[in-house]
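Researcher: We're teaching a course module on how sequence relates to structure. For the next exercise, students receive a sequence and then see the predicted structure as tokens, so they can try to spot secondary structure elements on their own. Here is the exercise chain.
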Amino acid sequence: MDSYKSIEEKLRKLEPFRGNSLHGLKNVDTDKLEVYSYNTTIGQALFIDGKIVVDYFNADKYSVTTSRHQNLIRKAWGI
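Model: And here is the predicted structure for the students to work with:
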């Protein structure tokens, strides 16, 4: 189980992780990191020429916890 601090670092590196209600999975077909808060996709990103390219970010309003997850992604991915 990853902490929020280690999750933020793994988000920057686009590495898979697992927290209590937040997890990131690497899609082997697209090489994207897909991030889920509970069972809702809230972000997808990949590296292109060494830079993070955000393919999808869900900015909809959800719970306080999901808002915290979205803010971790914003910070790590520079959104």
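Model: If you want an answer key for the exercise: The mean pLDDT is 96. The longest helix spans residues 64-77.
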